[in-house]
Amino acid sequence: MSTKKQFFKKVFASAFTVCLLLPLVSCDDKDSPAPKTKGSFFLSVNGESAEYIIQTDNLETGDLSIASNSKTLLQSGHTWIFNNNPSVAIGLIYQQGSPGIGLGFGVDSDGKLKELANFQITSRYTSYGFFDRYALTSVGGVTPVDANGNALKDESGNERSDGVTFNFIDLKGGLSLQEKTITTLNITGNGEQATLSGIVDMGNGEFLTGLVVSQPKDPNAGGGSSTGTITYPDSVWVAAFDAELNLKRIYRDDRISYSSGRYRSQYYSQIGKADDGNVYVFSGSYESTTTRPCGVLKINKNATTFDPSWYFNIEEKTGGYKFRKVWHITGNCFLLELYNDFTLSATGAATQYGIVNVETRTFNMISGIPAKDKIINTGLPMAYEGKMYFPIVEEGKYPAIYIIDPATATADKGISITGATSLNAIGRLTSQ
Amino acid sequence: MKFYYCLLFISMLAVSGFAQTNGILSESDTVKGVELNEVIVVGKSRVREINESAYNAVSIDARLLHNTTLNLTQTLDRISGVKIRETGGVGSDSQISINGFSGRHIKVFMDGIPMEGFGSSFQLNNMPVNLAARIDVYKGVVPIEFGADALGGAINIVTGQTRNTYLDLSYSYGSFNTHKSNISFGHTTNSGFVFRLNAYQNYSDNNYKVKTKLLDFSSSHFSTEEYWFKRFHDNYHNEAITAKAGIVNKIWADHLLVGITLSQEKADIQNAYLMQIVYGGRERKAKSIIPTLNYEKKNLFVQNLNFALTANYNKVRSNNLDTLARRYNWKGEYEPKGTKGESGRYSMSEFDSQNAYITANLNYRPNNKHYFAVNNLYGNYTRKATDAAANSENSTAATFMKRINSKNVLGLSYKFEPNKRWNVSAFYKYYKVNVRGPVDISTTTVAEYAEKEKSFSTAGYGIVMTYFLTDAFQVKTSFEKAYRLPSERELFGDEVLETGDVSLKPENSRNLNFNISYSNVWNNTHSAYIDIGMIYRDTRDYIRRQIEQRYGGAFYTNHGKVRNIGVDCEARYFYRNIFSAGGNITYQNIRSMTRYTVNETYDINYRGRMPNVPYMFGNLDVSYNINNVLGKENVLSLGYNMRYVHAFLRDWINEGATDVTIPMQLSHDMNVTYTLQNGRYNISFEVKNIADEMLYDNYSLQKPGRSFTIKLRYFFFNNNFK
Predict the structure, then answer these.
(1) What is the pLDDT, as a whole number, of residue B665?
(2) Alpha-carbon distance A334 to A129, whole Å?
């Protein structure tokens, strides 16, 4: 009997102790935390799923570990864009049918990360860029409404889908965000609607954007994109808007197809401005029905039409490869992302890269980067001091930065991020 | 080294008797192998049979909780090794996990029927505990009777099967304008006609307070400070009714029942996956119709040859509505915007799904030593999306094509029981899936789809055994090589050509359990029970979606290896039918054993703790009964419950992701129940989250604060077999 009593005493005593101790228990075997990075270069990387910010002052040498990140982000999958003056990194995000929380970062004089703002991005985006005092995004295919919030309808009573929603993020107004929607029905005078691709600041209070003009999309067709049947695959349109989104003019030509690189719901910019202020409008000839080869047209600085005497057939120079993305590097040089096969498919693989010089009309494939069948993924490149800093994940390797010299079309491998699965973007921030 | 201290500490906890819950005592079922002096147990109850089986199984008698306002998920949360993660109040999403497995890796059954296709309007998170007579949880090793590719375990909700006459009526009212009611009725006539009815309803405004950031319309900025706001768009209601009728005790059938369940729900959606993103008009709705059939015949043709058949068909329609051209903030204010859809994606989408299951079971016990069983489940699942405003980013024409998934699981088992001291069983499961769905066959930039068919099969096996060292000490061990078969989307990929060449393997796991339990009774006064379960899970070949730019598009591949070594401990003490105290604690050391990433680089997370999975949690409960209060047969019960979850990280620690943490959760509930006339009339009063703690199961998704509820219940029971 006494042993039983003892047993219960023990049971109760220990149960009680446990209750007291429980909140204090910690079974974490925390690794000693790596020192947090700082520096003027801002890198977005992904681990297994989360997204992190890493900073450094050196992109050429000195590999970094993902564990030394300056910050874990609440959401994963931002699109980063970087502005010089004011110096700010803007993280755009929209996730799976839900608004995202946009981020603004700067650095202090010690090179430490400084969070500037948290803003709600309700509208998704397929194009983005800088214009005047704004970072700007756009998305097409939205259903516009009247003042009472009812959907606008077309002549046959169907809800319209020709709306384009812009987000204006005010770089000089503390990164406040305004959403504005316009309609595009009959924007080009042929009764069709448009999705916008690319944003290029003209420097005169206007911006240019490529138009992908199509019939309204069959709501049951799916496809992810906001583009319906393309009636005019052999024409290109570019629109000029002012800051109030008034349509200032339309540029049209028939020498190339529309100017946009497409992948599922995405519309990649294919227009870019050279250092002399001339705007080059590329076309990767994505549409399978077009008869026009990949090429580029020019809009001279402040001109109101395409330069009728200037045309460059790029497809001739690439040996038949088409391209999907275009980035300006420096001077008259652009980086092109080319498809791996001559014939495109909707899910087309594109891991070849070349430099095009629109002044000398030359094209060269880049040497010194991994072969096209060894590239797992790439990130958003940064043009800096005449070079292109390009994140590439090679098969069997951690993500690395390749430093491309456009003059020679050669690349050198810079730093790698140990433990990361992707390097999404690079930018540079200065303390102000 | 620290890890071993942790394990040591956990085992100390176990020995010291901190564990499993329940709340109310008075029935011996909760104590294994114990017979209290007040209750004479004739034969083993089914609860006790399962608890004493060789499986690592926990069965709880839900009837003991019928005076609470718990739903079935909250009831499961009190079982060792099981963790429920809720995203909000009444009707909110809840995720069930068994020893770290969740989602597609565990299967839930109701009376042996898979609940997979029942739809959200008839799910555990909205079912009152009164619907169940018993809840069985099988950890890691699942008997063949549940024909399913359950990688990590199974749950079976057993509804009232009694042939006695009963009527159970209850209504509760509580904080946040929450109303719940339930009616259960069952009657069997002398001629063998059976009728059973169960209906329940939940209604809540869920207008509890949350602390979060405020959106400023003019700048679209979130405030840096957090403030308290009352939820203003989180109304939830659902209604469900199940009726069954049939016959019992005929020559050709021990019972034959046909039934139908009708259910519906409507839920406002208040916030996104982060609390600070708020909605004011989004809604979801669901409806389902579920006809069922149960047939059972014992001693078919020969003595001890038993046959059972269950079949059901489910038709579910669910809608997601997001039509307002507005933007809201947490004050409930809004401003108009230029396009439809608060979430930025205008939606009136509608999904229809249909499925059917049929399970047949034949078992034969030639004598007390041998037992043979064969079980076959066939399931067929069809899903179709119809979205009137299909602006979704990743939808394609294929999204709107029909997808059919059919599955057959055949199980065979043999049990050898030489005497009452020990028994051993072995089983074999053969799985086959057949899928039909759209595949991209395009050669240009214009997508083109064709329907394709594919089948897949694999086999699993297991062994379970138990031995009674003494009447009080029992040891058990069980093992299963378990599988989860790939779904149609995984087999065909995300509309990509290349997946046709990829040979996907099923996700598989080697699950091993070892349990030791002790239960005893002293002097017909004290009784105690302790169970320590050690688990080992070696899970491999996770099916994951991968996107590589060099291939374009996405494809599915097998990758990843995870090991879980854990302990579930539970203990309980009873003093007569007056006092009980018990609790459980689970520690699971779930680590990635993936040495290399999909891209064949060294995986920095190798040996790292799985993020966003609670790894240490427990429950504690105490109850005290005062008998004969204001009259004989009247009992006043006082109960206390504590829920504890250790803090955990949302992301991988090895990646340096220490910024996003789900803090330690400790909450306390109390209840008082006054039971009159031996349980005929019951009045309960509950206080949940007494300390008004800010509770989170998921990052940023705050759960309700302190709440009060009163429940009235009438229970009539007539033993028809006196």
Answers:
(1) 96
(2) 16
Contacts of A302 (CB under 8 A, 6+ apart): A202, A204, A277
Q: Determine the residue type at A291.
A: T
Round to whole Å and give the CA distance between A156 and A138: 27
Per residue in A93-107, pLDDT tens? Answer: 987 678 999 999 999
Beta partners for B385?
B351
Closest alpha carbon to A392 in A368, A409, A427 = A368
Is residue A265 within 8 Å of B393, Cβ to Cβ?
Answer: yes
pLDDT for the residue A141:
87
pLDDT digits over B50-91, tens only?
Answer: 888 999 999 999 999 999 999 999 999 999 999 999 999 999
Give the Cα separation of B715 and B683 in Å (integer). Answer: 11
Count A/B contacts: CB-CB distance under 8 Å: 293
Q: What is the C-alpha separation between A295 and B564, in angstroms, rounded?
A: 57
Is the CB of B276 inside 8 Å of chain A's CB atoms? yes
pLDDT band at B463 (very low <50, low <70, confident <90, very high): very high
Structural contact between residues A258 and A236, judged by C-beta atoms closer than 8 angstroms: yes
Q: Is B103 exposed, middle or buried (0-12, 13-18, 19+ CB in 10 A)?
A: exposed
| Whether B605 contacts chain A with CB within 8 A | yes
**Residues in B 660-679 with any Cβ partner in A closer than 8 A:** 660, 664, 666
Write down the pLDDT at residue B43.
44
Six token digits for residue B319: 């809608």
Contact A98 B343 (CB under 8 A): yes
Describe the crossing of helices A2-21 and B2-16 by its angle, rounded to 10 degrees. Answer: 130
What CATH number is given to the structural domain containing B101? 2.40.170.20
- By C-alpha distance, which of B2, B4, B6, B10 is closest to B532? B10
What number of residues does chain A have? 432
User: Over chain B, what is the mean pLDDT?
Assistant: 87
Q: How far separated are the first and last CA of chain A, in Å rounded?
A: 80
Q: Which amino acid is at B684?
A: S
Tell me how far apart the alpha carbons of residues A178 and A239 are, in angstroms, rounded to a whole number: 21
**pLDDT number for residue B135:** 95
Number of helices (H) and strands (E), helices first, in chain B? 4, 42
Q: Is B525 on the interface with A (CB under 8 A)?
A: no
Please tell me the predicted confidence (pLDDT) of residue A25: 44
**Prediction pTM value:** 0.90
Which tokens is B380 given? Answer: 């067929």
Q: Please tell me the total count of domains within chain B.
A: 1
Contact status, residue B704 vs residue B154, Cβ threshold 8 Å: no
Q: Distance between CA A148 and CA B275 in Å, rounded? A: 28
Q: Predicted confidence band at A24 (pLDDT cuts at 50, 70, 90)?
A: very low
How far B528 CA sits from the closest chain A CA (Å)?
Answer: 9
Q: Residue A232's Cα: distance from chain center in Å?
A: 27
* Token digits of residue B215: 């959106």
**Residue B23 structural domain:** 2-718
Q: How many CB atoms lie within 10 A of CB A84?
A: 13
